[in-house]
Amino acid sequence: MIDNTDIKKSRFEIGIYTLGDIGSDPHTGKVISAQQRLQEIIAAAKLADEAGLDVFGVGEHHRLDYAVSATPVVLAAIAQVTKQIKLTSATTVLSTVDPVRLFEDFATLDLLSNGRSEIIAGRGAFLESFPLFGYNLDDYDDLFLENIELFQKLNQNDKISWTGHYRSTLQNADIAPRPSQETLPIWIGVGGTPESAERAGRLGTGMALAILGGNPSRFKPLVDIYRKAGIEAGHNLNELKIAVTGHGYIAKTTQQAKDEFYPYYSNYKQYVSSQLGGSTTKMSRADFEGMSSSETPLFVGSPQQIIEKILHQYELFGHHRFIAQIDIGAIPFHKVAEGIELLATEIAPVVRRETSK
Q1: Does 291 fall in a domain?
Q2: What is the pLDDT of residue 5?
Q3: What confidence tens digit (pLDDT) does each residue in 76-129 have?
Q4: DSSP structure class, residue 173
Q5: How many structural domains comprise the chain?
Q6: Is-annotated flag, keyword Ribosomal protein (predicted)?
Q7: Taking the alpha carbons of 212, 231, 188, 6 in that order, is the dihedral positive or negative?
Q8: In a domain, 282, yes or no
Q9: Distance of alpha carbon 75 from alpha carbon 160, whole angstroms
Q10: Which helix H or strand E contains 94, and what residues bound it?
């Protein structure tokens, strides 16, 4: 096991991400348009940048109940209204995108944003991109592995010759444009499998842990596997970056946060479960209370409650970044804006101070 004290301290990064879900408001039944949702995502990113948050992420889905399918296009729009904040996908479904096209898109984004582009690559919970883009679901794992390895070669070389199984051969091909950064930062999204954690470590990418339920301590073995695999593959421990992602809602008091968030979170859980072919039963308030208790990874509460949860996870993982999804279940934009302000002004300064000690 690797001691977290062996890891060189760097500024702890805090940000937010969105999947652009479009659901009906549980109070009014209203459903906003995809156009309005996109405009609100751009406005949220601008607020996050102005407030001093470090990262803004945008997810990818290919369905009518989500507003974002062309992630780099949305991030490019955000780049034009922001100055400092890092811009990442969250996540790119790497099994169903051509790595050369992906590199070109995000290298272009990097140039437009003056070096703020990143990628979180994952396999995604939704599978509609496989038939949509002509891929076989049986090749799920092999596609991901081939694409991540090719992407890393593209990231390192401006000319490449390469032969694989799932796309055409490259013969001394120009890989353009080159990004503003020396290489594009890439993270692998990990939900809970040791194999994914080991792969991220072996490849030397960052690891973005999606911790959405259960006790956070059960993810500690994945962190250990990731770091062990990275070191054994010859990577520097301090270059093996870990991010934690989770759902959240912030208000002045924990009771206020729970009361306001419950209708939206139960709404979100209900329609996502339905989209994935699961139960359509509404989450009970008792179940929600259990999910949002102090020992869980659901970041719902007062600023102090959120600080305590982030720092508890930091003690477990020694991670480098926390990004929260705070706009789910058709939460009105003004509530998202309030959450951004609280995260930036009351939570981030304390977490950065405590993690720098």
Answers
A1: no
A2: 57
A3: 999 999 999 999 999 999 999 999 999 999 999 999 999 999 999 998 778 999
A4: E
A5: 1
A6: no
A7: positive
A8: no
A9: 27
A10: none
8 Å CB contact between 356 and 293: no
Total residues belonging to the chain: 357
Find the domain containing 245 and state its range. Answer: 4-261+296-355
**217/254 Cα distance (integer angstroms):** 23
Which pair of tokens denotes residue 302? 């007062």
What integer pLDDT is reported at residue 192 of this predicted model? 86
Cis peptide before 177 (omega within 30 of 0): yes
Q: CA–CA separation, 163 vs 310, rounded Å? A: 44
CATH at residue 42 = 3.20.20.30
> How far are the Cα atoms of 41, 56, 128, 278, 279 from residue 18, in angstroms, in the given order?
8, 8, 19, 22, 23
Q: What is the mean pLDDT of the chain?
A: 95
Residue 224 covered by a domain: yes
Summarize pLDDT for 152-208 with one digit per residue, the tens: 999 999 999 999 999 999 999 999 999 999 999 999 999 989 999 999 999 999 999
| Cα distances (angstroms) measured from residue 76 to each of 35, 54, 81, 87 | 16, 17, 9, 9
